Each structure stands twice: as structure tokens, then as C-alpha cells.
Amino acid sequence: MTDRFALRPENRWFALVVLCVGFLMIVLDSTIVNVALPVIQTDLELSSGGLAWVINAYLIAFGGLLLLAGRVGDLVGRRQVFLAGLALFTFASLLCGLAETPGQLIAARFLQGVGGALGSAVILGMIVTMFPQPGEQAKAIAIFSFVGSAGASIGLLMGGVLTQLLSWHWIFIVNVPIGIAAFLLARPLLAREPGLGLRAGADVPGAVLVTAALMLAVYTIVDAESWLLGGIAVGLLALFVARQATAEKPLLRLGVLKSRDVVGANLILLVAVAGMLGMSFLAVLYLQRVLGYNAFETGASFLPISVAIGALSLSVSARLITRYGARLVLLPALALMAAGLALLGQAGVDGNYWIDVLPALLLMGVGVGLIFPSLMTLAMSGVAPEDSGLASGLVNTTQQVGGAFGIAILATVAANESGGATDPASLIAGYNAAFMIAAALAAAALILAIVVLRRAPATREAPAVEAEPAVLVG
User: How many domains does the chain have?
Assistant: First the structure.
């Protein structure tokens, strides 16, 4: 039975804030750990391979379960899946913070990945259900997109502050009070929806195939040295698609993929995120290894991009998308992102943050602040309510795989171009080459957007949006 309290207009905006707080906690964890890795390695006496698994254990569980978690949300209720994921993520964060051995930390990180997948996979589906009107939906998606895109930069800053002032344990423990508060607030605010029932799509073989395929694909990207495993992952995905075409109650209705905009938005998102997150990873290394920044200075350096993303995402993007349509907003935004990455590719050994880095970050901040709301809108366009959780999980899966792919590819390019040397001159040669590859990925995303996305007319709701105050809660 639906909770009337959750359906009151003002409480929908409060519910959105709670959803975004839970999502922010999960997003922060993808980068907050990066700054603390050297300290964790020393404290727990981890080898380089063991240290990589502090990241990989989370990525494999998270990326592998997102699509399944989104569909489970459609079947048993998105509210229930979100709350379960939030609780598991919070508990796993406590275990990470209390870990005293490498095995304990890596196991807890895997649990974090499971909780993160459950919690984040259904959020976008809940948002489009709570805000069916185009104007309000554009604003709500813009807020969600801001949290997702700016959260990575905020995580770098928080990781540096907590590690230097307290200890690496606190980058995980800080999630506990936030997670508890979000859980307690979400219970009364989110509408109780029953879901379609497991009988509507309890395709167990399909679930096993897609989960194994995605986990193996992420593992291949982030850790494996042989692409044979990648071929197996592709084969499992092909078997999954074949299964869904013939299953009586498929886990993934292939009709969802008939939308040109849905498929196109996910392809563009995959390529754009590969360039964006790969850049973020390498920019941290450039600031620390070449310019000599410490953890706190590195995190603070990314604040301008967070501010730019926030300025665009929280108000401007929703108005532009409503007036001109997501496609027309997306095209110049991708061009700005490509220009910022190309500019960063010109930074030198004696580079200056204010001249060589900040202008590039601002260009990318403006571009990303428009890219993500546009792509989220396109990815959820025309999706039936009963499939919104699945579409939400698909978007999150695309981002996760794209990010892992981008980091793996750009890190490999940087290492090859530097020849394995660690002096600043060799490092900058590798970083510059990788930044230009990232710019090429952004340009490829722009070409995809021009060719694939339909030329759809904008909705005529701009006056209504402009008449409403651009605030987080109504």
C-alpha cells in the first residue's frame, strides 16, 4: 500500500534529498579511497597486487550486480532494495573501518560493492516515478546527476582531509552515521511500492549469466592480463541475450533496448565516462607526482570542477533541457569536455595550476554539468514504469564499466609512453598522451551523439520551470 505521506509534493523533494545523500555516500567511496591508498599499503603491509584488490573487490561486486539489482528492484520493490543496499553498505563501511588485516579489508570492500549496487541501481528509477512531469523530472534528474558527477571530486578532498587529520580508517567510518541517518529518513519518506512480483521475471539462469558476465568483464578490465577472460565475458553476455529472447519470463525485456535514445545514451555515457574518470585518475597523479601536491592540496584542486558542475546541474541544465531538448544541450557540452581534456594534454613538467590545470577543469566542469543530466534524461526516456529500475541499473552499469575501462586504458597508455620511468619528464609524456586519448574519447562521444540520437523536439514546459524556484526542496 502506498504511503500517502511520501506522495505529498513537498515530501517528494525531501525524499529526493535523502536518495541523493545515500547515493553521494556510495559515489564518494569510489574515489575517497584513492588518496589514502599509500597509507593503507604501509599500515597493512600490502603488496602492490594486494593494494589493487582494495579497489578491485569493490568494483567487481558493484559493476557486476548493478543490472541485476535494478531488475530486482522492479520485481520486489525499489524502496525495499534501496533500503537493503543502504543498510548493507553502511555495515560494510564499519567493517572496513575496523579492518586490521588485508583479508578483512578486501572482504569488507566486496560487501560494500554489493550494498552499493543494491542501493544505487534503483535510485534513478525511483526519481522518474516520483517526478512524472517533464519540468520537475528534469530538475530532479539534474540534482541526481550533480551528486553523481561532483561526488568523485568531493571524495578526493574528503579522503585527503580525513587521512591527514585522523587516519585512513575514518574514510570508511564516516559513512556509518550518514548511512544510519539516510536509512531512518528514507523509511517514512519513500513510497511503499509492492513491485511486480518475482513471478513476473524470476529468470534465475539469466540472472546467473548476466552477473557472471559483468563481474568477469569488470575483472578483465581492472586486473586480468589475458583478454581470454574478456572473450568469455562476451560469450556469457551473448548467451544471456539469447536466453532473454526465448525465456518465458525474461530478466531483461529486450523491448527496452529498442529505443534508439536509450541505447544511444548508454553508448555515449560509456565513452564519455571512460574519458572523464580516466582523466580524474591521471590528473591526481599529475598533481602529486609532477607538481608535488600533497593529499589535501590535490583534493582541494578539484573543487572548481565540483563548483562548476553544481552551478550547471542544479538549475541551468534542467531549464536548458526543458527548453531545447536533451540532445541539443548534450552536443556543445561534449565539445567543451573534449576541449578541456585537450587543454590538459598540454600541461608541462613545470606546469602552473592556475594556467595549465584550472582552465581545463572549468571547461570540463561546465561540460560535465550539462552532459550527465542530458544523458540521464535520454537514458530514461520512453521507459515503461515497470522497467524503470532496470533502466536505472543499466545506466549505472554503463557508468561503472565505462569508468573501469577508461582508467585501465589511459593508465596503460600513460605507463607505455613514460617507459616505466618515474622522473617528472617521463611521467608528463605519459600523462599528456593519455589526456589526449581522453579528449579523443570525448570527441567520439560527440560524434555518436550527432549520429545516433534522434532529433526530437523539446518539451514545451519551459515557462513552468522558470516560474519555480531552483531549490533542493519544495
Answer: 2
Among 248, 271, 305, the domain-final residue is 248
Q: Are residues 42 and 148 in the same domain?
A: yes
Per residue in 35-94, pLDDT tens?
677 778 778 877 655 666 787 788 778 877 877 887 787 777 888 888 999 999 999 999
Residue 138 falls within a domain, yes or no?
yes
Q: Are 11 and 470 in contact (CB under 8 A)?
A: no
**Which amino acid makes up residue 104?**
Q
Question: pLDDT of 193-211, one tens digit each?
Answer: 776 666 655 677 877 887 7
196 within 8 A of 386, measured Cβ to Cβ = yes
Shared domain check, 363 and 238: no
Parent domain of 227: 203-248
Instruction: Indicate left, alpha or beta for 452 from its phi (over 0: left) and psi (-120 to 50: alpha).
Output: alpha
pLDDT band at 462 (very low <50, low <70, confident <90, very high): very low
- Residues near 125 by beta carbon (within 8 Å), at least 6 away in sequence: 70, 73, 74, 78, 380, 388, 389, 390, 391, 392, 393
Residue 186 makes CB contacts below 8 A (sequence gap 6+) with 15, 18, 19, 22, 79, 82, 83, 86
Statement to judge: residues 222 and 369 lie in one domain: no
Is residue 197 domain-shared with residue 208, that is, in the same domain? no
Q: What average pLDDT does the structure give for the chain?
A: 78
The reply to whether 325 and 232 lie within a common domain is no
Q: What share of the chain is helix, strand, coil (3-state, %, to 5)?
A: 80, 0, 20
Whether residue 407 contacts residue 437, with contact meaning beta carbons closer than 8 Å, is answered with no
pLDDT score at 195: 62
Determine contact, residues 101/173, Cβ cutoff 8 Å: no
| Residue whose C-alpha cell is 553521494 | 24
Lowest mean pLDDT among 125-129, 205-209, 213-217, 222-226: 222-226
Residue 458 has pLDDT above 90, yes or no: no
Q: CA 315, CA 298: separation in Å to the nearest integer?
A: 28
In the prediction, which pLDDT does 95 show?
94
Asked if 332 and 212 sit in the same domain, the reply is no
